[in-house]
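Incident log, structure service

09:12 report received: a user says their structure output differs between two submissions of the same chain.
09:20 pulled the input from the user's history:
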Amino acid sequence: MSNTVRYGTPNREYGMKMATMPPEDDGPVWMVNLMKYRDVADYADGRESTISGRDADDAYSPLDSLAAVGARPVFFGNVDQQLLGDEPKWDRIGVVKYPTRKSFIDMQSLPSFQKSHHHKDAGMETTIVIGTQPMPVPEASEGVELIDWADVPHPPTAEDGPVVVMHVIRFNDAAAAHTTPDHMEQYQTAAGKVALGHGVRISGWLAVEDTIIGDGRAWHQVRFNEFPSKAAFMAVVTDPFRLEAQKDHREVAIADTYALIVRASLNDLEASIDS
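09:34 re-ran on a clean worker, output below:
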């Protein structure tokens, strides 16, 4: 991994831990990428560019390098709306599952990766890349069945299809963040009762190991919840019972967060966790 990049601050301590972890202790890691693009790509060699930062990142597309180390994308999508969190305004979200932490580091030195990395450097204004592990998710209460999306109040349509709502969370109680603080447990129990009636599905909840590239902030969890439509999610957001639980518990529990509505073109996150 490069010691300096223009789009974020590398965490050398975490990088060294990933590179030197004994094989018997190593294993899969899910790297979550939040991406903010430049309006116009800015190549470090000074070449004139008229393409967008997004197009430059598309040219970077490291699929060959990922495959070479046994990694694969398991989630990818464009941000439809940023509900919570100030700057930056994120453009895309990606999650890559690596077979080991060391494989993430090894990829950085591959000729194929280094050959295309200048496109990422040109296109990316800022990014946060977070190493995570799957965490247990709440199970529906006994006797409660998931509702078919055809039967929810706001089913998917051609104009408003499924969305994934991504939450990046830092808790006030860092000591309890390796699980979930009590106030957040109480909130998600209340919110879950509302969301189930609108067809929510949990794609995956991820506990943060550390941030490999970022802006100095620490994060504790990343959650991906899927809804049949944006309208279904907004019905949950505006529900009075959920709003009361938000005030009493969620706002108490959370110190910093992003909440993003993402239109996913790839969502194999749940399958990647189960496999």
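09:41 both user submissions now match this output. Likely a transient worker issue. Closing.
09:42 reviewer note: The two ends are 28 Å apart (CA to CA). The chain has a mean pLDDT of 95.
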